[in-house]
Specification:
With 538 residues, the protein is an alpha/beta fold. It has 2 domains: 13-359, 3-Layer(aba) Sandwich (Rossmann fold); 375-472, no CATH class. 37% of the residues lie in helices and 14% in strands. It is built from 15 helices and 16 strands. The strands form 4 sheets. It has a 6-stranded mixed beta sheet. The protein has a 4-stranded antiparallel beta sheet with strand order 2-7-6-4, with no helix packed on it. Strand 6 (88-97) and strand 7 form a beta hairpin. Helix 10 (393-401) crosses helix 13. The N and C termini lie far apart (158 Å). The structure holds iron/sulfur cluster (SF4) (2 copies).
Length: 538
């Protein structure tokens, strides 16, 4: 029988559970070339744009910076730097609304471009195969590259895995409606993407590399096939269009039949997944020495005169992106960061583009009506049928509403990829994903609080122990050493002997009659002599 790897290599595909087929709405933006925007009036760069710790600031307010200059340096695990997207002056470093559903303020560096767009000195490595693996991983790290298709996982961590990778998957599925950023990038820059994949293959040495693209992107498939035609063990794989085939776990299942264990990572089963945009960034960083300072963003929706993909500098505010596409807002206009399924409505258009921003959607009310009022669950189980993670969305919803966190965890809430397929099919228009997001945030908060309280308890116990130890040591220092019984009896004997000696001496004195009395003192002797002479005269 064929080995699994042979079957994968031959092109076999496997079914994945659930999924939905919403209207794709990509044709509005996927046929135009990628547009280059004029410089925005200011750039707002959050210091942290990825999973992990933020870097240390390297710059101050009023400082002049060059394009590509590092603004932060990594200082802890999973810390990735950010770089100046153009030359200009730092006008402020302050918390600003973040590109997150909560829009909570995050420390950001605000740059006023000087219009010159002057690069700092770049260090390209066209002969990267001569470098050590550590040096190559460092280049990816200091270029600030994190995953550009999902949550923003630092690329250097994945690239330095010690686990054996059998199958490297390059994710070009781009399954969410409206978004065509990866599609046009593959059409326009397939050579660079393949060269970026080669860098990763050099580091990971996989047995097979698959570039997965949904079959509704024929131009991208053709471009990638042409660019990878002469490379052994690298294949382009067209997969059926279904949302969310591009989810990491779903894509692995479709291409390899393997399931990532709950709480595990793909590397645990010998698979590693990277996005096509990330591979482009890897090629730019290694071969040209350019850090990650820009990305392709789909700017779409019927309120725009032009719907297309643009090269957006990181830190560009959504307001600028929309204005450049002829934005005509409607009353109660919604602007969504991300697609209609997994994206979130922005509270303000002053939110900046970050490394994970793939789409800005400004739909008209007719195009995307406001969701209706939430009604009661009718237990139709349509949500369970649609769930690609084989969860029970209606149950999760009950537990989320009643804040039964233990039950939520037992029902694998954290396996939910927040794809929104359940909410999409729900006839009662229950905003299921919102309930899950809130519950996840609350559980994480509780876990953080628990960790904090455990640490505080540990510190308290350690302090108490130390104080007790010090008190004991002090007590022992001031205590007289106790004499032993033997020592006591010895000293008693000595005292008795001494007394006996004294008595003997006294007894000796009384018995000796021949002994003369002790001599008188001189004055007494004189007086006695005088007395004696007086007696003699009379
Ligand atoms: S789809 Fe909606 S109404 Fe149907 S079971 Fe799920 S949550 Fe309930
Ligand atoms: S949002 Fe979560 S529960 Fe709903 S379909 Fe997607 S994975 Fe399943």
């Amino acid at each position: 029988m064929d080995s699994l790897l042979a079957r994968i290599s031959r092109g076999q595909l496997w079914p994945s559970p659930g999924g939905v087929h919403p209207p794709v709405n990509k044709s509005q933006s996927n046929s135009l070339p990628i547009h280059i925007l004029p410089l925005p009036p200011r750039l707002v760069l959050p210091v942290k744009q990825h999973i992990g710790a933020q870097g240390h600031l390297l710059v101050n307010v009023h400082e002049q910076v060059l394009k590509g200059q590092a603004l932060t340096k990594p200082h802890a695990n999973w810390s990735v730097p950010v770089h100046a997207p153009t030359s200009g002056r730092i006008i402020d470093i302050t918390p600003m609304p973040s590109a997150h559903p909560s829009a909570l303020p995050e420390l950001s560096i605000i740059i006023e471009p000087d219009g010159e767009d002057r690069w700092c000195e770049l260090v390209p490595h066209p002969n990267y195969r001569e470098l050590t693996a550590e040096r190559l991983v460092d280049i990816l790290h200091f270029a600030g590259i994190s995953g550009m298709g999902g949550a923003g996982f630092p690329t250097y961590i994945k690239a330095s895995t010690k686990q054996q990778i059998d199958v490297l998957i390059i994710n070009g599925a781009e399954c969410e409606p409206y978004i065509s950023a990866d599609d046009v990038l593959m059409q326009a820059h397939s050579e660079e993407i393949v060269r970026g994949i080669e860098v990763l293959r050099h580091l990971l040495q996989p047995k097979l590399t698959l570039i997965a693209i949904e079959d509704d992107k024929p131009k991208a498939i053709a471009a990638m096939e042409q660019a990878s035609a002469n490379i052994d063990d690298m294949q382009v794989r067209a997969i059926p269009t279904k949302y969310p085939s591009g989810g990491e776990k779903q894509l692995i299942q479709i291409l390899t039949s393997k399931e990532v264990p709950a709480g595990g990572i793909p590397a645990d089963i010998g698979v590693l997944v990277q996005n096509v945009g990330t591979m482009y960034a890897v090629q730019q960083a290694v071969e040209l020495g350019k850090p990650l300072i820009e990305r392709v963003v789909t700017v779409t929706g019927d309120t725009l005169a032009e719907q297309r993909n643009v090269w957006a500098l990181l830190g560009t505010e959504v307001k600028h992106l929309l204005a450049q596409q002829g934005f005509t807002p409607e009353p109660m206009q919604r602007v969504i960061m991300g697609g209609p399924m997994m994206g979130f409505t922005l509270p303000t258009v002053r939110i900046p583009v970050v490394k994970t921003t793939n789409c800005i959607l400004a739909p008209s009310a007719a195009e995307m009506p406001m969701p209706g009022e939430e009604r009661a669950c009718i237990r139709c189980s349509a949500c369970a049928d649609a769930c690609p993670a084989s969860l029970l969305p209606q149950q999760l919803q009950w537990f989320a509403k009643t804040k039964e966190y233990k039950k939520l965890e037992e029902h694998q809430l954290f396996d939910c990829i927040e794809c929104g397929a359940c909410a999409y099919v729900c006839p009662s228009e229950i905003p299921l994903v919102q309930y899950y997001r809130v519950a996840k945030a609350e559980i994480r908060e509780q876990q953080i609080e628990q960790i904090k309280s455990d640490r505080a308890k540990e510190r308290f116990e350690a302090r108490k122990e130390r104080l007790e130890r010090e008190q004991e040591e002090r007590r022992n220092r001031h205590k007289r050493p106790r004499r032993s019984t033997e020592q006591d009896s010895q000293s008693k004997e000595k005292v008795a002997e001494a007394l006996a000696r004294v008595k003997r001496k006294q007894a000796d004195k009384g018995d000796d009659k021949t002994r003369l009395p002790p001599p008188l003192p001189v004055r007494k002797r004189k007086r006695r002599a005088n007395n004696l002479s007086r007696i003699t005269v009379t």
